[in-house]
Amino acid sequence: MSPQQTQAWAGPLQGIRVLDFTRVLAGPSAALALADLGAEVIKVEPPDGGDETRSFPPFREGESHYFLSVNRGKKSIVIDLKTAAGIALARELATHCDVLIENYRPGVMARLGLGHETLAALNPRLIYCSISGFGQTGPLRDQPSFDIVLQALSGALSVNGEAGGAPTKLGIPLGDLVGGINGPIAILAALHERHATGRGRLIDISLLDGMIGMLGYLAQLAFFTGQDPQPRGCEHPNLVPYGRFPARDGAIIIACLTNGFWKRVCEALDRPEWLRDERFASIAQRRDHREQVNALIGACTRERTVAQLCELFTRFEVPHAPILGVQAALAQPQVRSREMVVQTQHAALGSIPVINRPIRFSGASQPIPAAPPVLGEHTDSVLRELLGYDAQRIAQLRRDKTVA
């Protein structure tokens, strides 16, 4: 066992307990962030398969790659919420938790008897985070949503793709993953507020709201110009050079954000005359002469290999990158040196690689994340250690099929 695994400090959220009623991606990614920060996350799964993503291929020894990707460090307990005993058990668990996260459609948890008002009456300190496609209000409140739907409705899909081409879905499912960003931010803020008030709060996270918020300067550009920003492939709408440039054996990314970086590009490619060219003297002028700038740079870069360009631009401190595939990205020295890929022990698969926590804290190290749980792996231990149930009572719950 490595020194990291023997560390007792779970993280800054050590002592915080989360009851996780989420499934698929948006909700589980939010609960994952809290687990990464040291919270105890108890994932409640239904019988007959658990979280839907457990059935998403490809598999290894029956375990889904998809489920493994967003459920590390959690505990799994199987409860049948279609039974009165299952609902009672879920309510009892909620009285022992600081945070509850769910990502059912609005109204589902209330119909189950697990809505915010019901649980807040039992546990006034409970922070209740609801994550849904469109939030708890508005004309789309009750509509189903998936990542590509949110990308389309937010405008994000319209600006992704090559210039003049059809809009293209983002390769990363940001429409769902935005819930894993905004949900934890709101929960951490509510935990801070609870220190002063002693009370929890209902949090309403809309994935569409999150994607609208992610538009950033593109929204402001639309406000300023009265026009829709258009897809530009790897290029930037206002910064040049910025994007993909040809190399002898592939392509390289160059990102020139300021006049200072433009000077470095010219020096690296040994083209001092570009600095004297009035067409390229400012950010706005380079944008207006985009085709000429890109053609001149491309003529220089295609004479060298990607490795030669990387060496050159590193020497002149030009922001750049080779275009890596996922396997190469995971294997690159920077990622390895930061230990972003680690081995952990899975109950069914043995030693498996997982992505490590993306947030680090100076002065202390957390243990390697626990592997994603097999279905119901922690049912008995949670009932025994958290609720104090004895073996006889747990066995009866199993016979009644309340838990599995």
Automatic annotation (TrEMBL):
<dbReference type="InterPro" id="IPR003673">
    <property type="entry name" value="CoA-Trfase_fam_III"/>
</dbReference>
<protein>
    <submittedName>
        <fullName>CoA:oxalate CoA-transferase</fullName>
    </submittedName>
</protein>
<dbReference type="InterPro" id="IPR050483">
    <property type="entry name" value="CoA-transferase_III_domain"/>
</dbReference>
<dbReference type="Pfam" id="PF02515">
    <property type="entry name" value="CoA_transf_3"/>
</dbReference>
<keyword id="KW-0808">Transferase</keyword>
<dbReference type="GO" id="GO:0008410">
    <property type="term" value="F:CoA-transferase activity"/>
</dbReference>
<dbReference type="InterPro" id="IPR023606">
    <property type="entry name" value="CoA-Trfase_III_dom_1_sf"/>
</dbReference>
<dbReference type="InterPro" id="IPR044855">
    <property type="entry name" value="CoA-Trfase_III_dom3_sf"/>
</dbReference>
